[in-house]
Each structure stands twice: as structure tokens, then as C-alpha cells.
Predict the structure.
Amino acid sequence: MNPLKKIYLRLRYSLMIKSVLHVLAMNAPHDFFKIPLYRMRGTRIGKHVGIGYGAFIEESCPWLVSIEDGVNIGPYAIIVVHDSSFRCVEPASPIKTGKVVIKKNAYIGAGAIILPGVTVNERAIVAAGAVVTKDVPAGTVVAGIPAQPIKTVDESLKGTGEKR
């Protein structure tokens, strides 16, 4: 068999395995099953991490995602490290990539979207449905499209004892 064809088939087979692992990880019923599947794909995941059902963690370059200890990611959150939108309209444009890092004890709300090149720092909270286009400072709550700081985590914690 042609050596180039062997390389092509090996690469294609590898991509198919990663795709199957991706679908299994997204739909696994519990972190016990889900986290090892994401790790097999190349995503770096720390200890005591929770990942909600249907969370989409980068399909093409999962090794560019780093999730540190104590992070929780809500259901149907999306983390992407590549942007090929300009390539669709201009084929000569490069695909933009950027590492995504979610630091210790951060929280990503349900349906939030983290775009390429973003760092969510320690103890930061990304509200449900937010679209994060730039780094989130430590101990900050961000919300909206695009995500903007709305208060600090400490300010939010002070208000937890209020009557409703």
C-alpha cells in the first residue's frame, strides 16, 4: 500500500475515533464516564470537575482546552478554540485558533459560549447564556452578549442571605 495512503487512513481513523469519543462524552450520563472520554480526546481536565449533559468541548482541537480543579460547567455550554467563519466566505483566510483555559473553581453557566483565546480566571462565574469573547477576571461575575462584568463574586455572596 502507498505510504501516503497509509498515513491518510491512520489520520482519518484517528479523527473518526475522536469524533465518536466526542459524541459519547457529550451524552454520557455522569462525570464518571464523561471526563475520561474528554481526557482520551486530549482535553486537560483537573480534579473535582463537573460537566453538565450536552456540554460541547471543542471538536477539532480538544488539546487546546485546559480545565483546572474544581470547575463546574453547566449543561449545553460550548467551548470552542477555533473560528473558521472567515474561511467560509474567503477560502484563503486562515482558521483562527486560541487556547481556552478555565482556572480553578470557576463556574460556566448553562448554555454559555466560550470563544477561542479566552481565559476564565479563578473563582469567576459566567452566567447562563453569556457569550465570552475576552478574558474573565478572577472573582468576577460576567453576563450578557458579549459577556460584561456585572459584579464581583464577593458582592454576590454578601447578598445570598436576603429574604425574597
In short: The chain has one domain: 43-161. The CA atoms of residues 141 and 156 lie 8 Å apart.
